[in-house]
Write a structure and sequence with these properties.
It is a single chain. This protein is of the alpha+beta class and about 80 residues long. About 25% of the residues lie in helices and about 25% in strands. The strands form 2 sheets. A two-stranded antiparallel sheet has the order 1-2. The protein has a two-stranded antiparallel ribbon with strand order 3-4.
Length: about 80
């Protein structure tokens, strides 16, 4: 079911969870209609390559989708990082 905010259609959700003491990596996942949005944040002192983690996570989710549906892989999507 579509979501609206102030009368505008929500087309993406950018999840962002906290970094807590003892938990240096947070991967947050939210879905909106046919999209799955993933947010990642990490402690730079503990997690050396957050980009590698997010790229691997996105590839694993795509592989799960492909196996679950029997469909060929979707085209690669750009992964935003900060």
């Amino acid at each position: 079911m579509p979501l609206y905010l102030g009368g505008a259609l929500v087309i993406a959700v950018h999840p962002l969870g906290p970094i807590l003491d003892g938990t240096p990596l947070n991967l947050s996942v939210m879905s909106q209609q046919d999209r799955l949005d993933i947010g990642a944040i990490a402690c730079r002192e503990t997690v050396a390559d957050l980009g590698a983690i997010t790229t691997g996570f996105a590839r694993a989710v795509e592989e799960l989708r492909r196996v679950a549906t029997g469909r060929p892989p979707a085209p690669s999507r750009r992964i935003a990082s900060a």
